[in-house]
């Protein structure tokens, strides 16, 4: 007997929907091929069910447009566009849509591959933020999916963690599937379809580009902005802009300047290249933003070769080489010539060698001067009165001047040997000798060293 998955009420076999809450009764068979088994999730436009393809005996997912929206021409055309867009792109990182139809009561539905795993939003709720070695492969797959959509002339316009699925795969960790093209925009063809009228604000406020928040025309660069917000959140665990309400958040997207990720979370040690890359994607002017290809290249340059996609997170915990030095433009990596660096090192080594030799010669000359100035002080006997010292050694007797005072205290008898020991250092530097020794000192003064 059919049962409502919401209120658990049971109904007759000829009833398809619960009259209380409008939910499809389970189990239900659509077009004789798809048996709805259980509800997987619900959104603003529809409900997703786990279903079975009766002919192929294969599990699939069925997205059913809500009954009240199925009677609105704008929403029905947008729902059909989502299914057609996802099926035409045909990319490995975009959910595959296989069928489109209507229930006997007129509700639209489409069938897509079943993704068993979790969303990036659920992962962030648990982990808050991801390290670069794990965040970069996920974000680059998102970029590749959107690049394929843009190549088909389709703008997603609702890039957020909840629309990035991470299905479980044994051969590859963190494999990405981008879902929900429900509010996507076709950039080419059918300009008068009425689905994207000027002034209509569609999307999620936390990830919305300024031109999208203002209700203006959008193109692929709006997705670049949303990917920049997504990257900011994945790497820091916080959003760049978040107001007290939806209007305040949209106003910040229009006017506020984002704080660099490394400044928002200094404890994570995020590189400055990430700051430049993310802030360029968050530029208010769409023309100032990089392309998705350039943004993806900048992401890949942050952790070159760190985590191949076939590795699991548990295998990727080993230490890796340090990042290269910061460059001025991370979007276009600069190759630094090692030959130029070697020339600089040779010049520095040559300068140090010349300076070292000069220092040794100078010390040798000073040592020779000191040796020759002491020799005449040993030859003559002690002089009764000190003689005035020449200019170069005039300050030496001042330092030793306090030492003669203890020499006049021999009557005390308690330190008889102290004066003889302190007299030689007092007399040696104070005795310039006349004659040949004096001439030697004068000849040594203009030492070239």
How would you describe what is shown here?
About 26% of the residues have low confidence. Helices cover 39% and strands 12% of the residues. It has 449 residues and is of the alpha+beta class. The protein has 3 domains: 114 residues, Phosphorylase Kinase, domain 1, CATH 3.30.200; 219 residues, Transferase(Phosphotransferase), domain 1; 38 residues, no CATH class.
Which value, in Å, is the CA radius of gyration? 41 Å
Counted beta strands: 11
Helix content: 25-40%
What's the rounded overall pLDDT mean?
Answer: 74
**Cross-sheet strand order for the largest sheet:** 1-2-3-4-6-5
Main beta sheet strand tally, sense and closure: 6 strands, antiparallel
Number of H/I helices: 15
């Amino acid at each position: 007997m059919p049962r409502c998955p919401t209120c658990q009420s049971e109904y007759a076999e000829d009833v398809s929907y619960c009259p209380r809450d409008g939910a499809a009764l389970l189990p239900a068979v659509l077009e004789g091929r798809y048996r709805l088994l259980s509800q997987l999730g619900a959104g603003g436009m529809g409900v997703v069910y786990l279903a079975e393809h009766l002919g192929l005996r294969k599990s699939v997912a069925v997205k059913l447009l809500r009954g009240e929206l199925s009677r609105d021409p704008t929403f029905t055309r947008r729902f059909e566009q989502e299914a057609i867009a996802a099926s035409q792109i045909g990319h490995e990182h975009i959910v595959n849509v296989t069928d489109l139809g209507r229930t006997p009561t007129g509700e639209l539905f489409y069938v897509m591959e079943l993704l068993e795993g979790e969303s990036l939003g659920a992962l962030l709720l648990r982990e808050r933020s991801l390290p670069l070695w794990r965040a970069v492969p996920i974000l680059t797959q998102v970029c590749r999916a959107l690049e394929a959509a843009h190549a088909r002339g389709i703008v997603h316009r609702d890039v957020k963690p909840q629309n990035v699925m991470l299905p479980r795969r044994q051969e590859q960790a963190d494999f990405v599937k981008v879902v929900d093209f429900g509010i996507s925009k076709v950039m080419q063809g059918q300009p008068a379809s009425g689905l994207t009228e000027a002034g209509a604000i569609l999307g999620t406020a936390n990830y919305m580009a300024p031109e999208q928040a203002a209700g203006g025309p959008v193109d692929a660069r709006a997705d670049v902005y949303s990917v920049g917000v997504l990257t900011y959140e994945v790497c820091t665990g916080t959003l760049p802009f978040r107001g007290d309400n939806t209007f305040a958040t949209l106003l910040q997207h229009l006017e506020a300047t984002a704080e660099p990720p490394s400044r928002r979370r200094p404890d994570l040690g995020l590189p400055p290249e990430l700051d430049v890359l993310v802030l360029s994607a968050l530029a208010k002017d769409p023309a100032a933003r990089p392309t998705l290809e350039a943004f993806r290249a900048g992401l890949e340059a942050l952790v070159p070769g760190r985590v191949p996609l076939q590795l699991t997170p548990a295998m990727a915990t080993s230490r890796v080489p340090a990042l290269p030095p910061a460059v001025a433009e991370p979007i276009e990596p600069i190759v630094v010539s090692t030959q130029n660096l070697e020339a600089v090192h040779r010049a520095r080594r040559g300068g140090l060698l010349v300076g070292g030799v000069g220092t040794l010669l100078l010390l040798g000359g000073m040592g020779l001067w000191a040796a020759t100035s002491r020799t005449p002080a040993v030859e003559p006997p002690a002089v009764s009165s000190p003689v005035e010292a020449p200019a170069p050694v005039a300050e030496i007797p001042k330092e030793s001047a306090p030492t003669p005072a203890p020499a006049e205290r021999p009557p005390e008898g308690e330190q008889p040997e102290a004066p003889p020991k302190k007299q030689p250092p007092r007399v040696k530097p104070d005795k310039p000798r006349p004659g040949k020794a004096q001439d030697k000192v004068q000849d040594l003064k203009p030492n070239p060293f």
